Amino acid sequence: MSKEIEGPVEKSGEINVSEEIIKAEGLTKVFNKHLTAVDHVNFSVKHGEIFGFLGPNGAGKTTTINMLITLLKPTGGTAHILDFDIAKQQNDVRNVIGVVPQEYTADEDLTGLENILLCADLYGIPRKIAKERATELLKLVELTDFKDKKVQTYSGGMRRRLELACGLINRPKILFLDEPTLGLDVQARTATWNYIRRLKKEFGMTLFMTTHYLEEADSLCDRVAIIDHGKIVVTGAPEELKHGLGGDIITLSVKDDPDVTELIRSVENVKEVKKENGSYRIKAEYGEVTAPFVIEALRRNGYVVTKLMLTEPTLNEVYLEYTGKSLRDTEESVETIRTQRMTMRRARA
Amino acid sequence: MSTSDEYHPSRFHGIWALTKRELKKWLKEPIILLMAILQPVIWMGLFGKAMNLGNMFSSSNINIPSVIRISGSFVIPAQSGDIYISGTALSQMFGNLGPSIMQNIFGVTDYFSYMSVGMISFIVLFTTMFSGMSIVWDRRLGFLNKVLSTPVSRGAIILSKVFNASLRAMFQATIILALAAVFGLQVSSTCSLLNILGLYAAVFLLCVGLSSVFLALALRSTKWETQMAIVNLINLPLMFASNTFFPISQMPDWIQAIARVNPISYLTDAIRQLTVWQLNASSLMFDFAFLGVFAAVFSAIGIALSWRYLTK
Question: Which domain holds residue B84?
């Protein structure tokens, strides 16, 4: 079930191109007639926003991005990028997009500059203009000092930045980033986030990204779509999604572990109480105001609160709410991910 | 930065950019370049010089006594009693027989001349076979996906690999020719500079045809092991069921049937006509026609398949 938390999409005859830069309707990809990787996905991306696909590995994020960038043909539904049909006007789509893939795709035997110029050639950009842009982009991603070194010698963060520069060589209207910080250390990740923010702020670029890092979606994206088993379960701004859960989380423990569920539930603004491993997980609106009331109510009845924690909901709680499992939990089963990836790869071959 | 490009890649621009990339990779790897030179040297040394067929038929390999006695009844007209022949005279007779056998079967008097120019076909086959491997690697490393997400023509991706293989093979052909000349290649009286240009044209045609075949086989493959297995299975049969090392006329009928459709035979024949043999215009024309059709058909199939299968 897809739930659109934002206002209804404008359905008038005139579609404003500058408003909706990507529009997917019922987009579906079935591999080998039985493996449904993407299942009737609907979403739209607005001009100048960072739109994120959040979900575990194997949820269909990369398959969706590959359809949008014309690497895969959808088996059902359509998507338009700037009014170009991704299945029928592939070359028009390719001309207006930039792609930063999940893998490091730069040619290791060539230098950074040679890689950028090769990308420029693939777009048919004249050499003189290509050189000017390459200089400008190398400066943007801070690789000017390394431009004549073979990519072999680059670190992971440098390679990611080079991919970013290559993806920008044709001055795309929309940039696709597939897991832009996968495998990067904290420092390189923060640096990449800053580049992405700059692209949006300084150049007004629209960005579509996939990620399975909650923090990344939360801090970068204007809107996220949570995807699970090939379906979008919910779409909205991270703040809205978190507010949509209906409040903060208060976790507390009571001395001697009595059952006080009903007592807590009677406190004003408390919406839900769950007892987990000897502590109470309380969902409440205005947590910072409600928590003292809960303590007061317990104290008045002779109970002693030994521990209290107040947390604002994260996207993980949102994910938990809509899919019934924690994204962090799903991340742990490396074996499952590997099996899924193998299956997908074989299916595509 | 927000305005998008209005540039559209011309077909040539894309092909050239991708070919240049492959050549750069090749030239930046001196070991691979050295191997490319060493390989024909080793093969020419082993096959061309070690298998000294011309010498095999010479009189020194036959033990002839100084005086041979034969019955007079074998002589025409028949004579009574035994007659005696000088061994030296017989040895001279056999001495002329060797070059004559070589000339009739191989068209040249020394096997080295026959085989060393055939090496060019060998190199064409081995170089083109690996063009298929490179597309599998590009796919595995994600490079292919990046190229596919740009507006560059799908056909350009295939053609760049075809041209790259052709240029490499032509470079190696030059080295073989130069080395063969140093080691004693005996060219015929009809060989001229124009013939050498013709040789490059023939090499180019077979390169285009063969690399298209191997690229088409590799288009959807993600495993280089599969590609390696295919290559290993067909390289030697293709090589030996041709006139590269041995003349077709001496082979059993069923191998002859294969050799007569094997494009490698036609390249080898064309090369020999242009260098070591007396040029026969009509059969050379036929060689070129066969190679031309082979190249046109398979490059068209390769490009058509690339449109169909590069995007899944």
Answer: 62-102
